[in-house]
Structure to design on (568 residues):
């Protein structure tokens, strides 16, 4: 196998607004990330993905960029990011940024110029269309609700502009070669500054087919923008050009946020030969809990085996074409320990079993800030506590569907993007050591128990377990297998995961019991081991004092939520 440098990374995702505040304004900043580099180094991660930290009016917390070559003053200065890159590098930690180029902010000078001076070249940097019979040009619904069409303040030609997301996020016009060149230039600007790659935001939306029309699919009379505005033919060509001008030229990593890609098309996206990205997130494994697409109004009482089937399938399908990412959380998802673990599984053993399951499949692992502590969702009872525009939209759509207010709050509590955006709990003091001021978003109320101080250096903490997992993948006799080895699912009981990773050097078996029951698994591969206790169990989520994994011949008896990694 042709090995690539980015396959061996372990990536830690930081939401800068919520990580660590150093000047008391209640908002995390770049110097906060600098201050916590030793913490991240101790955890063992090798690369940091920083969510957007560019100048922004914060309509979508930075995913609305007003200057692609600067730093948001709330987060710091150019000197701060330079220092962060340099200090991280000294600890062997690489930095990647978030590339948000499907759209800019409506406060970007390009957009302002497009409105103020409609004959300027910047008009064609965006998508403008005339009204049809006095109405918006079509009936597509933006991702955050309402029409994708809006008339800007000060608009002189009476035209609508297009926005896939919020109205403060006008889509850039990728059909315009000048826009594509601007994007390539700004990417290389950051490469020249020492950034090692980008996570690429919402990239499947850059091509639209306005000849398509759709019947309304909800009480708002609108139709999902994904139908005509995502993964459209021609998109790949734009991205191949970008790759050649930037990522390939500099040997930097590209990680795409690419939802809705059918597996049979993966080759164009991440194929070893012709893929336009190095890796992408497969979101097919993330919506297993939702009954209705796109809206959070009804949830499945899902079974472990259903999620397991999706996750294995993703590994196998993605593995056929290229390289995967493995992740269970991010800034758009609820907390993993709340989403993946059912009510009977809210304990540290289960949190570690979940971690074991996702971390050792094949792919570059991502850890979202606080995941390494086993952080859980909040319980908020008032929509006014929320900041996220998408949560507020989901709440309003639920009310439109005649869900009552209490129920609507409960529904958004489960899925709100704010769940992962609450401040990072560093200790149990007031405001969790995140800020000396007032945090911009309330803390998750469990912070007095789940925080860094309570877990760092504590042998059986979730944090210590993440540290062990990372060390095993990165720096052990099994690293080669755990990073590059093939993935193969093995038969198991419904609530148990058993899979192997196979390389020339050795074979690894990963086992995780997601139930509170004792489970007995027969694993033929174990037959060859004479004495399993003799150093073959290389990781376990039960403490030594609790006794070793019970293996007899090729049979393993798993205790509740027991997980282990066995080297053959
Ligand atoms: C991506 C981001 C999300 C953002 C959206 C618009 O999905 O992950 O946070 O709201 O794009 O940029
Ligand atoms: Ca601050």
């Amino acid at each position: 196998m042709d090995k690539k440098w980015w396959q061996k990374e372990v990536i830690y995702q930081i939401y800068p607004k919520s990580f660590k505040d150093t000047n008391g304004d209640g908002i995390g900043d770049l110097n906060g990330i600098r201050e916590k580099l030793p913490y991240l180094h101790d955890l063992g991660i090798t690369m940091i993905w920083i969510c957007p930290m560019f100048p922004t009016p914060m309509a979508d917390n930075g995913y609305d960029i007003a200057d692609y070559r600067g730093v948001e003053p709330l987060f710091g200065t150019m000197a701060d990011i330079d220092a962060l890159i340099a200090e991280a590098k000294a600890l062997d930690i690489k930095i990647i940024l978030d590339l948000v180029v499907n759209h800019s902010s409506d406060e970007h000078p390009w957009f302002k110029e497009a409105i103020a001076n409609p004959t300027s070249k910047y008009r064609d940097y965006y998508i403008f269309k005339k009204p049809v019979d006095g109405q918006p040009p079509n009936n597509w619904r933006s991702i955050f609700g309402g029409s994708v069409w809006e008339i800007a303040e000060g608009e002189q030609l009476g035209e609508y502009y297009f926005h896939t997301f919020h109205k403060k996020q006008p889509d850039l016009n990728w059909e315009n070669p000048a826009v594509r060149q601007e994007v390539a230039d700004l990417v290389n600007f950051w490469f020249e500054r020492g950034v090692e790659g980008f996570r690429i935001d919402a990239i499947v939306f850059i091509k639209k087919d306005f000849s398509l029309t759709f019947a309304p699919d909800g009480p708002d009379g609108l139709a999902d923008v994904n139908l005509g505005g995502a993964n459209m033919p021609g998109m790949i060509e734009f991205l191949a050009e970008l790759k050649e001008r930037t990522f390939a030229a500099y040997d930097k990593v590209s990680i795409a946020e690419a939802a809705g890609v059918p597996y049979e098309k993966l080759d164009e996206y991440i194929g070893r030969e012709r893929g336009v990205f190095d890796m992408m997130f497969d979101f097919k494994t993330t919506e297993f809990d939702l009954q209705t697409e796109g809206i959070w109004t009804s949830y499945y009482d899902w079974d472990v085996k259903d999620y397991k089937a999706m996750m294995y399938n993703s590994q196998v399908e993605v593995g056929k074409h290229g390289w995967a990412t493995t992740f269970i959380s991010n800034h758009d998802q609820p907390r993993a320990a709340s989403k993946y673990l059912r009510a009977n599984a809210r304990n540290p053993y289960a949190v570690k079993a979940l971690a074991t399951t996702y971390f050792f499949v094949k792919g570059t692992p991502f850890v979202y800030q606080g995941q390494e502590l086993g952080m859980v969702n909040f319980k908020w009872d008032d929509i006014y506590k929320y900041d996220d525009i998408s949560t507020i939209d989901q709440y309003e759509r639920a009310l439109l569907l005649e869900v009552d207010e209490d129920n609507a709050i409960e529904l958004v509590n489960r899925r709100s993007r704010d769940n992962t955006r609450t401040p990072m709990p560093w200790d149990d003091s007031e405001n969790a050591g995140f800020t000396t001021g007032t945090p911009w978003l309330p803390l998750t109320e469990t912070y007095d128990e789940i925080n860094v101080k309570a877990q760092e250096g504590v042998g059986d903490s979730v944090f210590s377990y993440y540290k062990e997992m990372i060390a095993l993948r990165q720096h052990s006799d099994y690293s080669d297998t755990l990073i590059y080895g093939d993935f193969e699912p093995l038969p198991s009981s419904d609530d148990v995961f058993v899979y192997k990773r196979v390389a020339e050097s050795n074979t690894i078996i990963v086992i995780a019991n997601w139930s509170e029951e004792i489970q007995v698994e027969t694993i033929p591969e174990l037959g060859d081991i004479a004495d399993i206790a003799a150093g073959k169990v290389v990781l376990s989520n039960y403490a030594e004092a609790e006794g070793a994994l019970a293996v007899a011949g090729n049979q393993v008896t798993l205790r509740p939520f027991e997980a282990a990694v066995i080297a053959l």
Remarks:
- The radius of gyration is 24 Å.
- Residues 21-23, 25, 27, 29 surround calcium ion (ligand 2) (CB under 6 Å).
